[in-house]
Write the structure tokens for this entry.
Amino acid sequence: MSLIDERQDFSNIADAFLLHGSMQSPAFLDGRLCALLALKDVSAEAWLEEVCLSLGVEQPRDQASAERLLGWRRQTVEALSASEMNYEPLLPDELFSLAEQAQGLKEWSLGFLEVCEETIDKEQRATWSQTLCEAMDDLPALARIDTDIDNSAENENDLFALTEHARMTAMMLYTEQHPGQPQVEQSDAPVH
């Protein structure tokens, strides 16, 4: 099985970044990736170029790294367009402290908003549902969340709810920009 087909998670991508000499979190770029896919249908080549630019390299250091970075994009496209609506932002998981998880959500939100601010105009926003507009209006607050939090059940629940809000906003943006992808509404009409 090729790395491009392997399930990518936060640690896989962070390791790929380290191989390129970068200590940055993948969360910011994942936010950008999600918004780019929703608003511009960013190609695999353009995505690889963006990641390399962010990492300060001209190209991935080897085939395996390129496959991992392209697999990240493929996985995100598939999740955003799937009828299961199972997209998950690429964020630090339970192996990280809640403060690190909150920092990841903050960085993801900053990346997502950066692309939105560069891309969205008033005419485009006018076509959105009220629900999407309200959800998008909440994202700047996620980009300012306090990340100096202790590990507690209350903070964990709050962070889960905020992450779920970001996830749903990303999926709403994608589905409204790509009508019919995913096909989430089922017809009650009989099939002949």
Observations:
- Confidence is low (pLDDT under 50) at residues 183-192.
- Residues 2 and 67 are 8 Å apart (CA to CA).
